[in-house]
Amino acid sequence: xxxxxxxxxxxxxxxxxxxxxxxxxxxxxxxxxxxxxxxxxxxxxxxxxxxxxxxxxxxxxxxxxxxxxxxxxxxxxxxxxxxxxxxxxxxxxxxxxxxxxxxxxxxxxxxxxxxxxxxxxxxxxxxxxxxxxxxxxxxxxxxxxxxxxxxxxxxxxxxxxxxxxxxxxxxxxxxxxxxxxxxxxxxxxxxxxxxxxxxxxxxxxxxxxxxxxxxxxxxxxxxxxxxxxxxxxxxxxxxxxxxxxxxxxxxxxxxxxxxxxxxx
Length: 264
Known about the structure:
Layout: H1 28-35, H2 39-46, H3 59-72, E1 75-81, H4 89-95, E2 96-104, H5 107-114, H6 117-120, E3 124-128, E4 140-145, H7 157-167, E5 168-179, H8 187-205, H9 219-228, E6 232-237, E7 251-257
Parallel strand pairs: 1-2, 1-4, 2-3, 4-5
Antiparallel strand pairs: 5-7, 6-7
Helix pairs in contact: 1-2, 3-4, 7-9
Protein name: Methyltransferase
GO molecular function: methyltransferase activity
Domain Methyltransferase: 79-172
């Protein structure tokens, strides 16, 4: 996953592998080992240095999500789906009055997230589980996810969204930010296309697979699967990220609500 995103120097003046992205970040060798592992094992290995890579959810995104939830809340009980090292726990703690839960299937990521729990307060807890088989039933009125959807194949969306729907109470909200795809003439478009191509070749010739694709899921498909799972879907522009040349927002919040009985 991460190796294809590296553009810095491989070796320093001493001949040793240099850290990636920042002095505290992973080295190229560490990323190579991670990329040749399973998703779970790869993140276990990367976890201690994950927050020093560009793949941690940026503060600008966290702030935008928090602002949106402030306007639509407050909430009682919140779940951070695929919480990783827990960057979103503070956001949930701010908008949830009763409890905050982070769920992830990487023990390594949860170990780092556990260090954040004091900041989120005594109401916070962590659960190790696969997002495709959530162990919750009507336990939350808010579920958020921050940047995890590249790890799910299109065929997995029905089960994933059904699990989130079951974890929410009637009237509960499933919210996550999405960025507008880059234009075909942009360098970003070709970079992401190339990244996905490399990952497909890697998964065709190497086991276990590492599922991480930037272009596997389409917005229309995500919306259809949310609606099939029983959600009512609305879109909200995130104004802090500006607009594209055609006037469309660069970033949106998808707000998928599980209808309450009175809504029918």
